[in-house]
Amino acid sequence: MELQVIWFFLWGLLWAAYFMTDGFDLGVGALYPFLGRDETDKRKMINAIGPLWDGNEVWLITAGGVTFAAFPLVYATMFSSLYTPLMFILFGLIIRGVSFEFRGLSENRLWKKTWDTCIFVGSVTPAILFGVAFANIFMGIPIDGKGIFHGNLFTLLNPYGIMGGLLFLLLFMHHGALWLCIRTKEGLQERSIHTAKVLWPVMLVVLAVFVISSWFYTDLYANYLVTPLLFAVPLLAVAAFAGARIFLAKGKFFPAWGMSSAGIVATTFFGIIGLFPNLFPSSLSPEYSLNLMNSSSSPLTLTIMLWVVVIIVPLVIAYQSWAYYIFRFKVEEEDFTY
Amino acid sequence: MDVVLLSRLQFAATTMFHFLFVPLTLGLSILVAWMETRYARTGDEVYLRMTKFWGKIFLINFAVGVVTGITLEFQFGTNWSQYSAYVGDIFGSLLAIEATAAFFLESTFIGIWIFGWKRLSAKAHAAVMWMVAIAGNASAIWILIANAWMQHPVGYTLRESFGGQRAEITDFMAVITQKFAWLTIMHTLAASIVLACFFVMGISAWHLLKKQHEEVFTRSFRMALVPGLIFSIFVAVQGDFHAVDVAHSQPAKMAAMEFHWETQPNAPSYIFAWPDPEAEKNSIEIGKIPGMLSFLIHHDFSTPVTGLKDFPKDERPPIAIVGMAFRVMVALGAYFIIACSIGWFFRKRLQEKPWYLKMMLWSIPLPYIATQAGWIVTEVGRQPWIVYGLMKTSDAVSPVSTGQVGASFVGFIVVYGLLGLAGFTMIAKKAMKGPDLPEETKA
C-alpha cells in the first residue's frame, strides 16, 4: 500500500482516538451543571476525569501535529480557513483545562461558580465546534485554488454543519454519562444511568438524520456505492451503540462505555471513508480539493514518521491503559485531592 | 495594522506568555522529583511536606503552561499557513514527534501523579514524578530542535511541489543533531533550572525572614542553592560558546546584538550604546573596548567581524530591541552567579543574613526577565526571516483577514490576561500560605 494511503487512515484514526478519549471528558463537562447537584457530586465528576483528561487531550495535539507533518498543505489550509471556529475551540479548551486546577484552589463560592461555568462552556464549545467543522469538511469547504477561504463563521453554521455539532455533543454526552456510571456509585451513578438512557434514543435519531442527510448534502456516499461492503462501517456504528444500550441495561458499564467508544470511532470512520482520497474537499471545484496525493509530505518524511508512530504509539496506548487501570475504581470522597 | 504585524504580535504575545510558565515547569519538576525521591528513600516527613508544597505550586504553573502551549501548535496553521506549507515536511514532523514521544508521557503521568498518592507506593509515586520531569524536558528538547531549524536550517533541499517551492527533508539525523540546536537546548534547559532554583530560594527566603516552617525552607533553600550556583555558571560559560556559533551562523543577529555597523578588524564592544538605524551608526557609545568583539567571537583581536552595513537594509533585524535584550540577559546572568556565590558562602547561617534573604526574595522576577530577554534576542534577532536566509516572515502569513486576527488577538489578551492574573495570584497565595502541617500532608 502506498505511504499516503496508510497516512490517510492513520490521520483518521488519530482524530477518532481523540474523539473517543477526550469525548467522554467533554461529555462529563457538558453534563456537569446538570448532574453535579452539590459540591460532593461536582468533585466526584471532576475526579472521575481528572487523572485522564490531560493525557486524552494530547490525542488532539498529535492529530494536529500529524496533519502538519504528513499533510502540511491540509494543515495550513484547514486551520487557516477554519480560523474562527478553531480559535473558539482553543479558548474553550484553555479555560476548561485551568478550571479543574483553579477550582480546587478557590475557597470563595463566587470563584468556584466561575470555574464551574468555565468547565461547562469550555466543554460544550469544543464538542459542538468539532462537529460543525467536520460536517463542513464532509460537505466541502469554499476554498479556491490557492487555499483561500471564501466565507465566514456563518458559512459553516449551515443546517448540516449545525446537525454535525449537535451530533457530536450528544455522542460525547452519552459517552460521558457512561464513564460516570463506571466511576461513581449511588445517587450520582443512578442519575448518570438515567441520563445515558434518556440521551441514547435522541442521539440515535440525530445520528440517523445526519447519516441520511449526508446523502443530500455531501458526496460521502460515492465510495460506498462503488464498494457496498463499506456500508459495514456505519452499520457497525449502529450495532456498537445498540450494544452500549444493552450492556447499560445489564449494568455492565465498562463494556457499555467500550461499545460507545467503538461507536464513536466507527462514526468518525463513516466520514473518513466517504472523504477518501480527499482530506479537505473544496466545494467550489473538485480540482481545488486537497487529497492525500496533492498535499502530502515527501516519502522520506512519511517513512520517518511511520517509524515513529509504529514504535511509540503502542507505548502510549500501553501506559495510558495502565493509567486507566489505576483509576478504574469508584471515586470516593477521601480521594479528593483538591 | 496589517495581518503580518498583527499575527506577529499575537504569536509573540502568546509565546512569551507561554514561556513565563515553561521554565519553572522544566526546572521545578526535577527539584520536586528529587525531593520526593529523598522522601521515598528516607521516609523523612519533612521531604514529603516539601514535595507536596512545591508540587502544588508546580501544578498550578503547569496547568497554565500546558493550556497555553496548545494554541502555539495551532497558530502555525491558523496564522502562518504559508510557512506551514513551506516547512511542514521538516518542522511539522518535529512537532508531531514531540507530541507523540514526549508530551503524551508528560500529560499522562502528571494525571497519575496528582491522583495517585494513595494508589501507588512512595517509590513508584516518586518514579512517576521523574517521568514527568524527564518527559517535560524531552518535550522542550524537540521544540527547541524545531526552533533551531528555523534559526539554522540544515538537512533539507528545496523542491518544486504542488505548484510552489517547499523545504523537504534529506537528512533527518543532521536536523536533530545539529550544533545550533544542542547549544540552544543546553542554554534553555540550564536557564530553566536557574530560574526554578531562584524561585525556590526566593520563596524560601520569604518564609525564613518570617521565621516560619524553618526546617522545610532551609532545606529547600539549600537544595536549590547548589544547582543554582552550578547552572548559573554553566549558562554563562555555555552562552559564550553559543554566541560564537551565532556569530558564524547568523552574522546579522550578532551584529545587532553588539550594535556593530562596520565590518572591521579589531571590532569593538560597548558597555552601552544606542543605535540610529537611519544614519547607520550609533547615536550613543559608552565604554568602548577596542578589539573586544573580535576577541569574543574569534578569540583573536584582529579578525574582522561582519557589520550591519554588509546586509541590505531590509535584511537587518530590529537593532535596538535585540541589542538591549542581549545586554539585559548578560547582566542578569552575571548577577545570578554573584547571588548564588554569596549564598554558598552563607549557606550554614542563612537566617543570620536577612539582607541576603531579602535580596533573594526580590530576585524572583529576574530570571524570568532574563529568559524572556533571551528569547527576544533569538526570535527578534532572526527577523526579517522566519526561516533564516530562506523565507521572510512577511511571506509566511495566512491568507486570513485583519478582522479575524484582530478579534482573536483581543481574545488572547483577555483570556491570557485573566489566566495570568488568576495563575500568579494562586501561586503567590499558595507560596505565602506555606506547606501543610505534618498531619495534613498524609492524604
Tell me the radius of gyration of chain B: 23 Å
Q: Oligomerization state of this entry? A: heterodimer
Structural category of chain A is mainly alpha
Number of domains of chain B: 2
What fraction of residues of chain B sit in β-strands? 5-15%
Shape category of chain B: globular
Order of helices and strands of chain B: HHHHEEHHHHEEHHHHEEHH
Total count of domains of chain A:
1
Number of strands of chain B: 6
Q: Point out poorly predicted stretches of chain A.
A: none
Strand line-up of the largest beta sheet of chain A: 1-2
Through-space gap between termini of chain A: 50 Å
Give the averaged pLDDT of chain A, no decimals.
Answer: 90
Apparent shape of chain A: globular
Q: Which percent bin holds the helix content of chain A?
A: over 70%
Order of helices and strands of chain A: HHHHHHHHHHHHEEH
- Helix content range of chain B: over 70%
Short description:
The complex is a heterodimer of chains A (338) and B (443). Chain A is built from 13 helices and 2 strands.
Which key phrases capture this entry?
heterodimer, A: 338 residues, mainly alpha, two-stranded antiparallel ribbon, B: 443 residues, 2 domains, two-stranded antiparallel sheet, 14 helices, iron (chain B), transmembrane helix (chain B), transport (chain B)
Notes on the structure:
- The complex is a heterodimer of chains A (338) and B (443).
- By secondary structure, chain A is mainly α.
- Chain A has one domain (1-335).
- Chain A contains 13 helices and two strands.
- Chain A has helices spanning 3-35, 39-49, 53-70, 72-81, 83-105, 109-139, 153-156, 159-183, 186-217, 221-226, 232-249, 253-275, 299-326; strands at 278-280, 290-291.
- In chain A, strands 1-2 form a two-stranded antiparallel ribbon.
- In chain A, helix 3 (53-70) crosses helix 4 (72-81), helix 3 runs antiparallel to helix 13 and helix 11 packs antiparallel against helix 12.
- Chain A is globular and about 60 Å long.
- Chain B is mainly alpha-helical and 443 residues long.
- Chain B has two domains: 1-172 and 399-429, no CATH class; 178-398, no CATH class.
- Helix content of chain B is 71%, strand content 8%.
- Chain B has helices spanning 3-42, 45-79, 81-115, 122-151, 172-177, 179-209, 214-249, 251-257, 292-298, 319-345, 354-362, 365-380, 402-433, 438-441, and strands at 156-161, 164-169, 269-276, 281-289, 385-387, 391-392.
- In chain B, the strands form three sheets. Chain B has a two-stranded antiparallel sheet.
- In chain B, helix 1 (3-42) packs antiparallel against helix 4 (122-151) and helix 2 runs antiparallel to helix 3 (81-115).
- Chain B is globular, with a radius of gyration of 23 Å.
- At the A-B interface, helix 3, helix 4, helix 5 and helix 13 of A face helix 2, helix 3, strand 2 and helix 13 of B.
- Chain A: Belongs to the cytochrome ubiquinol oxidase subunit 2 family.
- Chain A: It is found in: Cell membrane.
- Chain A: GO terms for molecular function: electron transfer activity; metal ion binding; oxidoreductase activity, acting on diphenols and related substances as donors, oxygen as acceptor.
- Chain A: It is a multi-pass membrane protein.
- Chain A: Pfam families: Cyt_bd_oxida_II.
